[in-house]
C-alpha cells in the first residue's frame, strides 16, 4: 500500500495537557459531546492538530481527514496562504463595530461568482443565513408557510429543524407552517402547491440533501419546483451551504441552470472560520435595507469579521475553475472506489464532485455509520459521523487510491449489515 504519511510534519505534543482528554469531554458536555452532529456513541477522539489532509488525535495518531469539518475545508488544514491571511487580519484587530475592508473585498469576489446576484449579507453560520432567508421571504411575501424536502438539514432554526424531523422544543405553530415533500416526489409537490400555494412564502431547497442520502435531485423535479414557486409567488431559496464548493458559481446554477431568488451559502467560503452568506437580486435583498420602511433586522456581532473574511478571500482566490474541476474529479475517483468496494457489503457512495455521501443499507443506518467511523479511525481515516465526506485540494490520485484501499479494509472488517440479505461480507 502507498505510504501517504511521507513528508507529514511531526506533532509536538504536550502529553500532560492531553491526558485523559477524551474522558474529560464527558465531564464538560451533556452526552459527552460538544455538538449533536459529532455524536459517536462513546467518547469521540479529540483532535489536536491538522495540516493538509492530515489530522492528529491526542494520542499522537495520524489520520487522513475525509470530514474536513463537515465539508468546510476545501484546502485542508492550516493551508499556508489561508492561515497567513487570517493571522494578518488578526494582527490588525480581530473585529470592529464598523465595516472593514476585508468584508468588502470578500463580497466583491463572492458576487463576481454569481452574476445574477446584486448583493450579499454575511452571517456567522449557515444556520443564521437560512433562518434569515426564510424571514426575508416571509416579510416580502406577507405569507407564513415554507415548503421543503423531508429529510433535509438547513441548520438549527426552529422552522428549518422541522425539515429533518427534529421538532422537540419547536413550537407547534412553527412546525405547522412547514410543508414537507420527499425528494423527487413531484406528485406531493404539485399537491402541496394546489392546497397551499397562496400561503407559501418560500421553497427552501438543498439540491443534494445529505440527510436524504446525498443524491442530487432530478432536474425534472427541480424544474417543477422552480416553475410552481414562480407561478404561486413563492420565493425560491436554494441552500448551498455545502454544495457551493461544487462549482465556482455554485451547484444550482452550474448544474441545474437555476437563478434562485435567494442563494444561501457558508462553510467553504470562510476558509475554515465561521461564516454564512445570503445572496440575491436587488429587489429581494432590498428587504434588508435599513433606509427602507418595513425592512427586517439583520445583525450579528461577528458578522463579516476581518479574520474570517480575510481567510475566506484567500481560500476563494485559490479555488478557481481549474482547481474546482480537479477537486471534483478527485471526489469522483473516491466515490467510484468506495462504490466498488463498499457495494458488496451494503454501502452506497452517493454525492457529486468533491462531496461523497456514504449510505449503509441497514435498518439502523446511524449505528452502522458509527461502527464504520470507529473501524475507519483505527485504519487511519477520520470520517464524519454522518457519512458526509469530502476531499481537499492537498490530495491527489495517490492519496485517493490509498484511501479507497483503507476503506475497503474497513468494509471487509465490518462485514455485511445483519439486516442486509444481499451482502457478501464476513
Ligand atoms: C445544507 C446545510 N445548510 C445549513 C447548514 C447550517 O450551517 P451551520 O452549521 O454553519 O450553521 C448546514 C450545516 O451542516 C448544511 O449542511
From TrEMBL:
TM stretches of this protein: none
InterPro entries for this protein: Aminotrans_3, PyrdxlP-dep_Trfase, PyrdxlP-dep_Trfase_major, PyrdxlP-dep_Trfase_small
Taxonomic superkingdom: Bacteria
Cofactor: pyridoxal 5'-phosphate
Family note: Belongs to the class-III pyridoxal-phosphate-dependent aminotransferase family.
Cited PANTHER family: GLUTAMATE-1-SEMIALDEHYDE 2,1-AMINOMUTASE (PTHR43713), GLUTAMATE-1-SEMIALDEHYDE 2,1-AMINOMUTASE 1, CHLOROPLASTIC-RELATED (PTHR43713:SF3)
Name of the molecule in the record: Aminotransferase class III-fold pyridoxal phosphate-dependent enzyme
